[in-house]
Amino acid sequence: MQLIAFGINHNTASVDVRERLSFSEHQLPEALNDLRKQATIEEALILSTCNRTELYCGVTSAECKVIDWLSHYRETSHETLQKALYVHPSQSAVRHLLRVASGLDSMILGEPQILGQLKNAYRIAQKNGALGMLLSRLFQHSFSVAKQVRTDTAISSSPVSVAFAAVRLAQQIFGDLKPRTALLIGAGETIELAARHLRENQLGRMVVANRTLERARQLAMNMGGYAITLPEIDDHLAEADVVIASTGSPTAILGVEKVKQAIKQRKRRPMFIVDIAVPRDVEPAVGELDDVYLYTVDDMNDIIQENLRSREQAALQAEEIIDTQVEHFMGWFHSLGAVDTIRDLRTHAQDTQEQLTEKALNMLAAGKDPAEVVQILSHRLTNTLLHEPCVQLRQAAGNGDDEFLSVTRQLFNLTSSNKTS
Question: Which of 302, 307, 349, 385 has the most CB atoms less than 10 A away?
Answer without folding.
Answer: 307
